[in-house]
C-alpha cells in the first residue's frame, strides 16, 4: 500500500490489519452497509500492471486466456494467465483506456507476475510497468453509487465491463451497482472526500464479500496454480476464448472444455468458522484426500464467513463437507448458475 495513501486513510479513521483496511471503526455495521447501502472502499488488496507499446495487444493475446485483440478502447474483460499445465497463475480484470492495457490482479501476486511477464517480452515492442504505487483503486457500490460518483464529478460507463475516463480517474462499471475508480495518488484523497457525503466508508473485506456475492473469484498467493479456468467459472465470465490461437495451457484448457472433463466447480460457501483462500475441504466419504479448496473468503454480514469454493462435484451434494482437516468445521455449499 502506498505510504501516503495509508497515512491519509488512517487519518480518516481506517484501521490497517495485514496490509488491508480492516474497517473504519465498526466492522459489523460496515458489512451490513455493504449488503444494503451505498459504500466506498479502498481496494488495497488489488494492484495494477500496465502493458504498453506497439506490440502490447499481440503480446497479451498470446499470453492470456481472453481475446485481448478484440478488446476495444473503453472496454474491460476478465482473463487469466496460466501455466503450461493450464493452471491459473493469476486472474485479471483487463481494461483498455487509450493505447495501453491495464491488468488488475491480487496485490500479493503482482511482483512475481510482473517479473514473469517481463521474461516473455524478448524482442517484442512492449513496456510493462507496475502502477500500484502511482494509482489507487476505490470501489463504490450500492443503490446510490451512480449519484455518489456523479456528485464527485466522474463520468460513468453505461454498461457493465465498460470504462470512462475523467480528469480525476478512470471509472469501470462492474455491474448495475458496483464501480471501481482508478485515480492518481495526488487526486485520491480529494476524490475519497468527495464520495463520502453519499457513500459510507468501509473496509476492504466488505468489497471482498461483494465479489464473493457476485460470484467473481480472485486468484491469490494461496490458490496460485490450483485451478484450471473452467473450475473457477472463467469461461462463464467471458475470461476464456476458445477461438483464438495458442497461449500457455491452451491445449489442456481446450481439451477440458470439449471433452467435458471438468469435475470440480465453483460454489458459494458458508461456514461459522474462519476460512481463508487455500483452505482445503474434505469429505467423510474420502478423508484421505481433499475434495476441494476455498478460493476466496470474507466475513459475512449475517455472521460467520462466506466464500467461493471449488469442490469436486461428486462430493458437493452430500452436505457433510469439512474444512481444513477431516473432522473439521462444517461448510455449506450452494451452486452457482453455470
Radius of gyration: 20 Å
Mean pLDDT: 94
Number of strands: 19
Number of helical stretches of at least 4 residues: 9
Beta-strand level of the residues, as a percent range? 25-35%
Order of helices and strands: HEEHEEHEEEHEEHEEEHEHHEEEEHEE
Number of domains: 2
Note the gap between the termini.
36 Å
Query: What low-confidence regions span 5 or more consecutive residues with pLDDT below 50?
Result: none
What is the CATH homology-level superfamily of the largest domain?
Probable tRNA modification gtpase trme, domain 1
Assigned CATH class of the largest domain: Alpha Beta
CATH arch. level architecture of the largest domain: 2-Layer Sandwich
Name the helicity range.
10-25%
How would the global form be characterised? Answer: globular
> What profile does the largest beta sheet have?
6 strands, mixed
Give the spatial strand order of the biggest sheet. 10-11-12-9-3-13
What fold name stands as the CATH topology of the largest domain? Gyrase A, domain 2
Structural class: alpha+beta
InterPro entries: GCVT_N, YgfZ/GCV_T_CS, YgfZ/GcvT
Binding site for substrate: 180
Protein name: tRNA-modifying protein YgfZ
Domain GCVT N-terminal: 41-234
